[in-house]
Amino acid sequence: MKGFTNDNKAFTSTLQQARRNTLGDLLVRTRDRTPDKLAMMYQGKQVTFAELDDLVNQSAHAFLQRGMKKDEMVTVMSKNSLDFVVVNFALARIGAVMIPINYMLSVEDVQYILKHANVTGLIASIEYAPVLDQAAYGMDVKHRYVMDVPETTKELASWEAIAKIREGQPATFVEAHIDDDDLAHVLYTSGTESRPKGVMLTHKSLISEYVSSIIDGNMEARDVAIHAMPLYHSAQLHVFLGPSIYVGATGIILGAADPKLIMKTIEEKKATQLFAPPTVWIALLRHPDFDKRDLSSLEKCYYGAAIMPREVLKELSERLPNAKFWNFYGQTEVAPLATALQPEDQLRKLGSAGTPTLNVQTKIVDEQDVEVPRGEIGEIVHRTPHAMKGYLHDPEKTSEAFRHGWFHSGDLGVMDEEGYVTIVDRKKDMINTGGVNVSSREVEETIYQMDGVSEVAVVSIPDAYWIEAVTAIIVPKEGANLAKENVISFCKERLSTFKVPKYVAFTDQLPKNPSGKVLKRSLREQYEDLTQ
After folding, report:
1. CATH 3.30.300.30 residue spans of the chain
2. Cis upstream peptide for 476 (omega within 30°)
3. Across the strands, what pairs with 456?
4. Which end of the chain is more exposed for a tag (fewer CB within 10 A), N or C?
5. CA atoms within 13 A on the CB side of 333
6. Using the 8-state DSSP alphabet, how is residue 512 labeled?
7. What topology does CATH give the domain 203-361+381-389?
8. Where in the chain is the domain with CATH 3.40.50.980?
C-alpha cells in the first residue's frame, strides 16, 4: 500500500500472525477442509483429522499449563506411534523445538545430544524413558512425559503420561507468536565424523520442502500412505508424513519396517503409497509372501536414503506392474529432499537421482567451487529455502557448508545435458586405490548383475600395496553358490582392471541403521584384517 508505515510492535506481531505458515498451522488447515476424513491408523486405532487436531490442541494446552515455553529444546525418543505424530504437531503449535532421537543410540551418544542442545524437556515411549533418565542425569530437566500409555509406573514416578495430562484440556486452537523462520526441529546427523551435528530446521525450511515433496512426488488427498520407516528420521517424517497430512491423505503408522507386516497392510488396507530405502525393497522382493499377497493397490513407490541397484529396480517394476517409482535424493540439511527422478524416467535415466525439485536449484562444482561443465564430476551444491538455518552451536561448520552462498552436500555427482544428476559417491566413499579413484557404487552395480547376489556393499580397506583396496562384501541369495573367484572373474569382464575387487567376503547380512543405510564405516572396521 502506497505510503503505508506502521511502527507499532503489537500491530507488527498481529500482521505476522495473520501471514504465518508454520507446522502448527498445517494440520488445522487440513482439518478445516476435511474434518471427518480418516487421518491416521495405528494398531487398530483410527482418528479423523478433527480428532487428531483435538489431540494436538489438548496436548499443547497441557504442555503450556506445565510451563513449557516457546524455543525450549524438547527431545523425543520413541518408535513410530500415533502419539509421536501428536507430539510433533503439539510442540510445533506452541513454538517448542522438537529433537527426535534415534532410539538405537547408546546412552553416551544420547547424553551428548541432550547436553549439546541444552535440552529441558524429555518425551519418550515407556521403554526409552529410563534411557533418557540415565542420559540426562545431573541436567536441569523441567519436563518428563511418556507417550502411548494411560499412566506411568512407580519406576517412572518423575514422568507424566501425556494421555493423562491432556484429559480435560480444551481442544481449542493454541495461539502462539511464532515466526516462519523460527526453529521447528533440530535433527542430529548420524555422525560420519567424531560427533553428530545438530541440523537446525525452521518452519519455513520444512513447509517449503513439503511443497516440493507434494509436487514432485505427485502426492494427493486420495493417497493411503504407509509410514513404516522410523519417524525420528527426516525422510519418513518430512518427505512423507508431513506432506501426507498437508494434502489430507490417510496415513497408516507401522511400528517397524517389517516386510511381512508391510505386505499384509498393503493388502488389507488397500494402501496406495510406500516409501522404503533399497534395503527394505530388497527384503520385500526376497520375502516368500511377496507373490502370495495382493499388492495391486500399490500405485506410488518411493525409494531413497541409499542408491537403488539397477537390477533390483528392474525386478520391482516387473513384479509390481501397477506401481510407479520415484527416486528421492537429498540429506537432512535440506530437510531432506533435493532432487527427484520421475516414474517416466526410471528406465530412461536408470541410476540417476533426477532433477532438482520445485524449490531447489542445484549445480556441480569443482574444488574451487566453480561450476564444472556438464558431464564432469564435482561436488553437488544446492540453493533452496529447504536448507537448514545452520548447525547448532557450530558457526564454523555452518560457514564451511554454506560457502559462496550454496549448501555443499559432500556428495560427488555429475549433471548431464538434460539437467539430470547422477550420484557418483559420497566423498568419503570414493576409493583411492593405487592413486586412482574408484566409485564404490559402480562396482556395486556391476556385482548386482550376478545371479545369486541379494545385497552387496563395496568399501575400501587398508592395503600395503594399493593403500586402499577395493573390497566387496556380499549377501548371497538363499541357496546361491557364490565363490570369490566367480565374483572377481565376473567383474574383470565388465570393469577396468583397477576397479575389480581385490578382496571378496560373504556374510548373512549387512549392518544398517534404522533408516536402512548400510553402515560402510562398520564394514571397513570389520573387514580391515582381510589383507593380512
Report:
1. 430-531
2. no
3. 474
4. N
5. 21
6. B
7. Rossmann fold (3.40.50)
8. 13-36+50-179
**473-496 average pLDDT score:** 94
Residues near 214 by beta carbon (within 8 Å), at least 6 away in sequence: 243, 246, 247
Give the pTM: 0.85
Q: What CA–CA distance (Å, rounded) separates 305 from 336?
A: 10
List pLDDT tens digits, range 338-397. Answer: 999 999 999 899 889 999 999 999 999 999 999 999 999 999 999 999 999 999 999 999
What digits encode the pLDDT tens for the residues 179-215? Answer: 999 999 999 986 544 578 999 999 999 999 999 999 9
Exposure string over 390-415, b if 16+ CB within 10 A, otherwise e = bbbebeeebeebbeeebbbbebbbbb
pLDDT at 4: 47
Q: Is the pLDDT of residue 1 over 70?
A: no
Mean pLDDT of 156-167: 96
- The band of 3, judged by pLDDT with boundaries at 50, 70 and 90, is very low
Class assignment of domain 430-531?
alpha beta
Cα–Cα distance for residue pair 423/352, rounded to 1 Å:
7
Backbone angles phi, psi at 198, to 5 degrees: -90, 110
pLDDT computed for residue 423 by the predictor: 87
Check if the beta carbon of residue 217 is closer than 8 Å to that of residue 329: no
3 sits in the region (left: phi over 0; alpha: psi -120 to 50; else beta) called left
Residue with cell 487440513: 30
Q: Contact at 8 Å (CB) between 34 and 248?
A: yes
The three three-digit cell numbers of residue 384, written as one number: 533452496
Contact 244, 195 (CB under 8 A): no
| Rg, Å, the chain Cα set | 24
- The pairs formed by 438-443 with CB atoms below 8 angstroms and a separation of 24 or more are 438/470, 438/498, 438/499, 440/470, 440/520, 441/307, 442/495, 442/499, 443/470, 443/472, 443/491, 443/495, 443/499, 443/501
Q: What architecture does CATH give domain 13-36+50-179?
A: 3-Layer(aba) Sandwich (3.40)
